[in-house]
Write a structure and sequence with these properties.
Blueprint (H helix, E strand, L loop, with lengths): L2 E5 L3 H14 L4 E5 L2 H10 L4 E4 L8 H11 L5 E5 L3 H10 L4 E4 L3 H13 L7 H10 L14 H11 L4 H8 L3 H15 L4 H10 L5
Parallel strand pairs: 1-2, 1-3, 3-4, 4-5
Helix pairs in contact: 1-5, 4-6, 7-9, 7-10, 8-9
Length: 210
């Protein structure tokens, strides 16, 4: 029997995932979490064989949540199931410890295959993401400026893209205003931009979001 925790803040979507698993994985048992804090609480309460996790839920950012999971449960396979396109987050999530990254649009065709692959000890990469990963290791390929940012800097950039102020970002990330201002300065320097408005416009134009 495989015990799978499904973490997503939309109950109807969790229902759809349960239906996919019941059809594709004989004997799978599931649990559900609607935010990151509930997800961590359930992971700590009893053992699970696999975690299916969205990266946009209340409580904290997806990257921070995944790093926390892998710190506490390093052997737990994690499948990221996200609305965000692969090019936005997949590479960062793999570096943070994910075993598979699937968009929600791909889920009906690929979720069960991904679970079977990672349960066997492998990593699941779609063909389109495979091409992206191959290009990412080529030193002569020019990378977009936001790919030079650290994970935390990237998250702050995405939050600026939603129109949040420094104070609002500090509140949502549980960091100080001074810390967020420092991140903003680093981002501006790395991306060779001058103002917060330019950061916001860049994030919107490149469809970067959390």
């Amino acid at each position: 029997m495989m015990r799978i925790l499904i973490a997503d803040d939309f109950p109807l979507f969790r229902l759809g995932v349960r239906e996919l698993l019941s059809r594709g994985l004989t004997g799978a048992r599931t649990g559900e979490a609607g935010d990151f804090h509930q997800m961590l609480e359930l992971l700590r309460r009893k053992p699970w064989d696999l975690l299916i996790m969205d990266i946009t839920m209340p409580g904290m950012t997806g990257l921070a949540a995944l790093k926390q999971v892998k710190q506490e449960f390093p052997a737990l396979p994690v499948v990221i199931l996200s609305q965000h396109p692969e090019e936005q987050y997949a590479i960062r999530m793999f570096k943070a410890g994910a075993d598979a990254y699937i968009t929600k649009a791909m889920a009906p065709e690929e979720l069960v295959k991904a679970i079977q692959k990672v349960r066997g000890g492998g990593k699941y990469v779609s063909s389109s993401l495979g091409e992206t990963l191959a290009l990412s290791v080529r030193t002569n390929v020019e990378r977009p400026p936001h790919e030079t940012l650290s994970d935390r800097e990237y998250e702050v950039l995405c939050l600026f893209g939603t129109g949040k102020t420094v104070g609002e970002i500090a509140e949502s990330t549980h960091l100080s205003v001074t810390t967020i201002s420092t991140y903003r300065s680093r981002i501006l320097e790395k991306m060779r931009l001058k103002t917060t408005a330019e950061l916001t416009r860049y994030a919107i134009e490149h469809r970067l979001s959390l």
